[in-house]
Amino acid sequence: MSKRKRPEPKSSSSMGGINEDEKKLLTLIRSKEGMGATTFEMKVGTSIQPTLITRAIASLKRNHLIKEVPNMNNKGIKHFLGVEFEPCKELTGGDWYIDGALDVDKIEGLKEICVKILERHKNRVVTLDVICSYFEKVMDKDKLTKEQTKEILKNLVLDNVIMEVKSSGLSEFSSTRIGEVCYKLTGKKSGGGEARAGAFASVPCGVCPHVALCSPGGVISPTTCVYFQKWLDF
Amino acid sequence: MAPTEYGIVYAVHIITVQFGSVVSKVCECLLRRGPLSSRDISRLAESEINHNQVKDILYLLIQHNCVQAFSVEPPDGSENKAITQYIVLFNNVIHRVRYNKFSRVVNEELGSQCGAVLDGLLSNGRLTLGQLIERDRDSENTIGSEAIRDSLEKLVAARFVERIPSPEPVLGKKEEGPAAKKRGAKAAKILKEPESLEERILEAATPVEAIRFPHIFKEDLSSSLADNDSNISEGKRKQRDVESSDPSDEVIWRPNFEEFIRRLRHKACVEIVKERRDEGCAIVLKAMLEVGRSQEKKVKTDKSVPMSMGSIYEEVIKTEAGRTMLQERVEACLEQLSASSSYLPAFVIETDDSYIVDFKSIISVAQKDELEAVIMGRYGKEAFRMFRYLSQEDRFVETDKIADAALTEKKNTPQILLKMWKDSYLHMQKLAVTGVYVPFLLWKVNKLIVSRQMLDEMYHASLNLSLRLTHEVDSEKELLLLPMAKLEGALKERVNKIKAKRMLLSSTRFKLDDSIMLFHDF
């Protein structure tokens, strides 16, 4: 899973200057590979006193034997990894993360490309394979895996921009296997109609963040409401 | 379903506007405390209203179909007389703002004469044929007693008007007899959830079909019907003969809201299908609804009865728009209606050669749109994705999984979810795991809670629109009193502005009410 960056340092030479506790900790940390160990795990896993653990960690860091990696999911918790390990997916957040932040631009860009592909095939549905092969052709570096493409499409479905349909093998599905999952754009032209604008959402109260505080005669009230004022300002 | 907090406030507001604040006090007391006797009302209502006043108010509310009296059968052997109690009919109070929608249904289907008769019933609550004729005589555009009788007959035949329910049904004791207990486990499963008190009272008060919508329609019919009543409706409905003590001895009529809501529900379904599929599908669905309507028992039916292709086509060609359609086309429409995707569920279920309209799925599409539009407007695009993901999954999902699925920044995900949870749009549970410092948070969209929350906010918004309208009109009261022709320049502009505001506020409230029906009545 995680690859080693450089050959394992020779234990005799590099570990010469460290004491017994540090040795124990280092073995534990290295055994956890890409996931690393938290201070809590170290306390449980070894029987070293908490104060000594802190000191040992500082010393190991100074000797460039371990490194500190923040946990993506839980910013408060630090994980310690052997220097030769790359942090695993659970810590970095996965493929869509760069330096601990979600690569929104990349995702949005890919989504746009998907929509364009689907627009070009307006009258037909498109299968996952078609989109994958398109990405393979176009992108030279960091190619998308099939899983990643699927994730992008799933996201577009959640955005209500495209829809997933199971092929029935008839008319528009003529070139697909029966039961295969296909994608097409939502909206009027694709035969699914557009979602309603929503009567409630078009009233200021529908999107008001303070609706819970509003009451007739209260601090926020319909007669003094600024959103109403704006809405009724012809 | 008990009315929500703002549902009650809105209902009280409607009553205040139409009947004044004293009446609304009685109404609020009943809405908040449930069924009460008239003595209790005068004791519990916030302001000083004496017993006689309370009685008058209750009669007024009964006349306008907002309150129903009932009594509970005293336990065996008890010598106490049953005390009359009053229950407020929340739905009927809210229906009061929909009267022009009801009127429109009748005008479209049965013409303006029937519309005029219905309007008389709507504005007076309940009337006899004699009173309707009298009312017509006094009005400017008289249509004549014959026409009134014909119209009323048509209205009753179409079930838009019904005979008034029993004035004071007696409810049996809650425990059912041994016969009910003997029913097998299978029968118990078929039985639905226990009815609410309101439903029990209404069921006991409603006369049997033949009396509710009599076929033979004569003026002197009423007395014979009153005689029949006591035979037909034993027990619970024995109070009916009280009616015959009416001096005029005439049948009293009132609008049948149930039928109006059913028609509006059907209309809404056709509209949804038209938006989501196409004109052809809408025509086919409309025909299907027409075929199945007489078989519908209650308004909130989930599924229609099965219909054959032949009967659907027969109905399709009856309409002007459907006359051009070939059977092939109808078949294609039915196929389109029964297709489903991640985007749209099937609207029609196909079962060996017959078709069933899935009302629930059609209505749910519109409810979903309404709900998601609010999420999008209030919390933004990311929240929209998360919400859609959670409603798709329909189970508890952990924060990180949601962030992964919706591809949102993991740092921001908890904040967005918490915001929605705070407004009751999401359901959350903490899961403490030993060895993990912070508890896991699990999230879910609970459809019942969300719909109730939405409904409460929509009542709130309707109330706000109505209050704002009053405020706007009040602030320019003097100006509106001036004759329009004499106004010039800036003043004229001000009047036009207030008119535009009034238009926007009332049309928005009208549309919002459609959405309220979508969540509450359909």
Low-confidence stretches of chain A: 10-14
CATH architecture of the largest domain in chain A: Orthogonal Bundle
How are helices and strands ordered from N to C of chain A?
A: HHHHEEHEEHEHHEEH
Shape estimate of chain A:
flat
Mean pLDDT of chain A: 78
What is the rounded Rg of chain B? 27 Å
**CATH topology tier name of the largest domain in chain A:** Arc Repressor Mutant, subunit A
How large is the count of helical segments of chain A? Answer: 9
Across the major sheet of chain B, the strand order is 2-1-5
* Number of distinct beta strands of chain B: 12
Please estimate the helix content of chain B: 55-70%
Helix and strand topology:
The complex is a heterodimer of chains A (234) and B (522).
Chain A: H1 11-14, H2 20-31, H3 39-45, H4 50-62, E1 66-70, E2 78-82, H5 89-92, E3 97-98, E4 101-102, H6 104-120, E5 126-127, H7 128-138, H8 146-158, E6 162-166, E7 181-185, H9 226-231
Antiparallel strand pairs in A: 1-2, 3-4, 5-7, 6-7
Helix pairs in contact in A: 2-4, 6-8
Chain B: H1 5-19, H2 21-33, H3 38-44, H4 51-63, E1 67-72, E2 84-88, H5 90-95, H6 99-110, H7 112-124, E3 127-128, H8 129-138, H9 145-157, E4 161-163, E5 170-171, H10 178-182, H11 185-190, H12 197-205, H13 209-212, H14 221-232, E6 252-255, H15 257-276, H16 279-292, E7 307-308, H17 309-316, H18 327-337, E8 348-351, E9 354-357, H19 359-379, H20 381-393, E10 397-398, H21 399-406, H22 413-422, E11 427-431, E12 440-444, H23 447-475, H24 477-481, H25 489-520
Parallel strand pairs in B: 1-5
Antiparallel strand pairs in B: 1-2, 3-6, 4-6, 7-9, 8-9, 10-12, 11-12
Helix pairs in contact in B: 1-2, 1-23, 3-4, 6-7, 7-9, 8-9, 15-16, 15-19, 16-17, 16-18, 19-20, 20-21, 23-25
